[in-house]
């Protein structure tokens, strides 16, 4: 054997490396088969946890009392500098022009004509000072005013025997709530915050204020709403947050 | 049998329902505490976070899924234990009598190394610790229910200072349970012979050992 040959990688060595690589690949495949873990499919654990989350939706709907009111607070209790919250920084909050804005209605609704903000402001208004609770755990007290949502649903002749009301927002956010919560007396289509026109920061042109649900179930910048019996999911809900998320 | 071998007998220590409760509870508690730490991290009450490596769920939504799934296991298991424990007189036999003075007396003995350990009866410090941790578990579950359902359970919430008060109670209840676990595991390490009876239900003892423990 001369020096030149020694400097070249031996063919058999390369083959051994190839075999080792194949062996590792096979082991990975075997592992995947044994554990039933396919990276493209949700794992057994994920499926169990999702099923439990659906079961928790049912439990929460069953224990939800349509007449139990969220505690109301006084002006003095309102949190100064109420936090901004969203899946993007405050500077990215969508600026919606009032001119040309129409709230679009679809689905199981009798009167599907769209609504301007002026028309909504002409309806009877009410306000509430309630606690907003974020899924992260923090809470803050704010004051919202607007149209009682159950009144609005009846006005537009929505099918209130349907299961869900869904919302589409200017920031591509979307969410949905159960009809029982939609008809709760404290659920309002909020047009104001602290008696001022709802600022962009808090969801202009309108926000659904639901004091019996976590913050992410209170969609802001609502552009369209619909009534349906097909589970609509939502932005965070589709990523694993519990859908009902009621208080 | 060899002439020098002392006859041994099985001494029954823990009933089956106690052992089932204990291990299911250990699993449920581990899942609840580890996922709870992740949930805490999303909005810490105090100026610290739990290292993500010792939490469960990967992110907030995952942790919440674990927490709201494992809670059913924890609560159902506890309910069965409490019902059987009260109905059969087990709690009365095992956890009473106990009084502040008996706890203080046994604590003084323990600290001076004069408290003998018996596998079959609890001393007053043990009784107080087990009653205490059960109360902490119940308080943590109730405050957790208030954090979950602050509107539906607002009457109970008022007793804790509302939603934010219930968060604090839930946190300190967890802390008390963790303190118990640390003490509990330390004592098992110091007296490893207590482990097998919690798995098998019995311990093998010589007649003399058994008589000695009965005298206490």
Walk me through this protein's architecture.
The complex is a heterodimer of chains A (247) and B (216). Chain A is of the alpha+beta class and 247 residues long. Chain A has 2 domains: 3-35; 44-239, Sulfite Oxidase, Chain A, domain 2. Chain A is 27% helix and 21% strand. Chain A has helices at residues 3-7, 11-35, 44-63, 117-121, 149-155, 179-182; strands at residues 104-107, 126-133, 139-148, 164-169, 174-178, 188-193, 196-197, 207-209, 222-228. In chain A, strands 2, 3, 6, 7 and 8 form a 5-stranded antiparallel sheet that branches. In chain A, strands 1-9-4-5 form a 4-stranded mixed sheet. In chain A, a hairpin with a 5-residue loop joins strand 2 and strand 3. Chain A is globular, with a radius of gyration of 26 Å. Chain A starts with a helix and ends in a 19-residue tail after the last strand. The relative contact order of chain A is 0.16. Residues 1-19 of chain A have low confidence and may be disordered. Chain B has helices at 16-42, 60-87, 90-95, 100-111, 124-148, 154-159, 162-190, 195-200, 207-215, and strands spanning 8-12, 202-206. A two-stranded antiparallel ribbon of chain B has the order 1-2. Chain B is built from 9 helices and 2 strands, in the order E-H-H-H-H-H-H-H-H-E-H. Chain B has a single domain, classed as Fumarate Reductase Cytochrome B subunit, CATH 1.20.950.20. Chain A binds chain B through residues 48-50, 52-53, 56, 63-65, 68-71, 131, 133-139, 211-212, 236, 239-242, 246-247, and chain B through 39-40, 42-43, 45, 60-62, 64-66, 68-69, 72, 149-152, 154, 162-164, 167.
Descriptive labels:
A: 247 residues; 2 domains; five-stranded antiparallel beta sheet; B: 216 residues; mainly alpha; 5% strand
Largest sheet of chain A: 5 strands, antiparallel
Quick one: CATH class of chain B? Mainly Alpha
The largest pleated sheet of chain B is described as: 2 strands, antiparallel
Helix/strand order of chain B: EHHHHHHHHEH
For CATH, the homologous superfamily of the largest domain in chain A is named as: Oxidoreductase, molybdopterin-binding domain
Number of strands of chain B: 2
Q: In the CATH classification, which architecture of the largest domain in chain A applies? A: Alpha-Beta Complex
Query: What is the strand arrangement across the widest sheet of chain B?
Result: 1-2
What separation lies between the terminal Cα atoms of chain B?
31 Å
Counting DSSP E segments of at least 2 residues, the number of strands of chain A comes to 9
The residue-averaged pLDDT of chain B reads 93
Residue stretches of chain A low in confidence (pLDDT < 50, at least 5 long) are: 1-19
* Strand residues, percent of chain B: under 5%
Helix content of chain B: 55-70%
Distance between the termini of chain A: 81 Å
Number of helices of chain A: 6
Query: What CATH architecture of chain B would you give?
Result: Up-down Bundle
